From TrEMBL:
Coiled coil: none annotated. This is DsbA family oxidoreductase. Residues 213-238 are annotated as: Disordered. Residues 3-201 form the DSBA-like thioredoxin domain.
């Protein structure tokens, strides 16, 4: 089974969803046969390539409700063993990070890409690091097992830029407007950072559907965001 996860490294629900999905996968008897691949998505494609304090960026977009949004995520994250330090978090354009994730996938494989994804999210949400800074991205990549010299040279150029931009366009064509979105076997879509039990049920159902070789049936669920842009399990593109 192949699971393609569309997400952004600065999406809080993507971080929560990652933890929940991985917990579900660990309880899934056929986990060894599941390939997880991360696909790029940008919540704010027009974001400048310079770090900005998270609190300021969110307040400018959502006003007074921004604080409550953050507080909710902090609580949900704690329940999953995740630390969200929004006072220290920095926002930046994530295209460079997505290029690095594509490099990890192409040259090291899905497992290394998943490991790097987790590292970048932890850096952003917990450590106050800049996921748009080449030096800090290089440190994250090296910690995830990528060759430091290769990453340094890669980030200094434009390699894989067009490929990642094409993937971002593909997400638009697929109708993905909020993340995380999980696409199973290219047929079934689940949106939002669902509960672990929901993810496990979806994995089990799709395994049955795949075994039955009946593409007319699928398991799909959705948790669409409200107007505040980042609620009920998903974050919308700005």
């Amino acid at each position: 089974m192949k699971v393609e996860i569309y997400s952004d490294v600065v999406c809080p629900w993507c971080y929560v969803g990652k933890a929940r999905f991985e917990r579900a996968l660990s309880a899934f008897p056929q986990a060894e046969g599941v390939e997880v691949v991360y696909r790029p998505f940008q919540l704010d494609p027009a974001a400048p390539t310079a770090p900005r304090p998270h609190r300021e960026v969110l307040a400018a977009k959502f006003g007074p409700q921004a604080v409550a949004m953050d507080e909710r995520i902090v609580g949900l994250g704690a329940a999953e063993g995740l630390v969200f330090d929004f006072d220290a978090a920095l926002e930046n354009n994530t295209l460079l990070a997505h290029r690095l994730l594509r490099l990890a996938l192409d040259e090291y494989g899905p497992q290394t890409q998943v490991r790097l994804k987790g590292r970048l999210m932890a850096d952003h949400f917990s450590a106050g690091k800049d996921v748009g800074d080449p030096a800090q991205l290089t440190e994250a990549a090296a910690a995830a097992g990528l060759d430091r010299d290769r990453v340094t040279a890669f980030l200094a150029g434009d390699e894989l830029r067009e490929e990642v931009l094409a993937e971002l366009e593909d997400a638009q064509r697929l109708g993905i407007t909020a993340v995380p979105t999980y696409v199973f076997e290219g047929k079934w879509a689940v949106q939002g950072g669902q509960e672990t039990s929901t993810f496990l049920a979806v994995l089990e159902q799709i395994a049955k559907e795949t075994a039955a070789a009946d593409p007319a049936k699928g398991a799909a669920t959705s948790a669409a965001p409200d107007a505040d842009g980042c609620a009920d399990g998903a974050c919308e593109v700005h």
